[in-house]
Design brief:
- By secondary structure, this protein is an alpha+beta fold.
- Among the domains are: 40 residues, no CATH class; 82 residues, Sandwich (Jelly Rolls).
- The strands form 5 sheets. A 4-stranded antiparallel beta sheet has the order 7-14-9-12, with no helix packed on it.
């Protein structure tokens, strides 16, 4: 309100006097008084001055930068905080990924090494007497994690996409085999063919 009163007083500085009259410009003063009346009726505190607008960090220290939008650190104290190697005060999970529906945590052993759960599956055995026409040892399997094919007699040509040929197939003679594991596992049908006669094939998949 002090600022408004000062404006009223400054408005009176323009008072002039003639021989028999005093001239006062009341338009500005009347407008200020009307504004003050409305502010007081609304319960609004009218004041002037500056306020403390400093942001403070987690320790109560003022952030003096006037730039808004820069990166600032927010110190947070965790209720379950502890030093490396100390006993875990509560169950603590480090979430590494999702199974498509829920978040899943990872865990470590006492030396800090990540524990890895092995995926176990059921082994399926397949046999095939391959001939000069295309034969199938295993059907297409999108969840195949391991594949072994061995030729126990004769000579056969195998393919991992369902159609074997003597021109482009993988040739296996009696006693030879091939294994697929690790990061590359074919999921197509495993087929075999011979150029002449028959061959015996046995397979394992999981």
């Amino acid at each position: 309100m002090g600022r408004q009163l000062n404006q009223i007083i400054e408005g009176l500085a323009g008072v002039t006097s003639g021989t028999s009259t005093i001239n006062v410009n009341l338009d500005a003063i009347e407008a200020l008084l009307t504004t003050l009346q409305a502010d007081i009726a609304d319960g609004i505190i009218v004041s002037s001055g500056t306020a403390n607008t400093n942001l403070r960090d987690g320790s109560g220290n003022a952030i003096t930068s006037s730039t808004v939008g820069t990166t600032r650190r927010l110190d947070v104290n965790l209720s379950s905080a502890g030093t490396t190697g100390s006993s875990t005060p509560t169950i603590a999970n480090l979430y590494a990924g999702t199974d498509g529906t829920s978040l899943r945590p990872i865990s470590t052993d006492v030396n800090g090494r990540v524990n890895v759960n092995q995926v176990r599956g059921t082994t399926t055995i397949g046999t095939l007497t391959a001939g000069t026409t295309n034969g199938t040892l295993f059907a297409t399997n999108s969840t195949r994690n391991y594949l072994l094919v061995q030729c126990t007699s004769g000579t056969a040509f195998i393919d991992t996409n369902g159609t074997a040929s003597t021109a482009n197939g993988i040739q296996l003679t009696s006693g030879q085999g091939i294994t697929f594991e690790g990061s590359f596992i074919p999921t197509g049908a495993i087929a075999a063919i011979t150029s002449t006669g028959t061959a015996q094939l046995i397979g394992r998949q999981g």
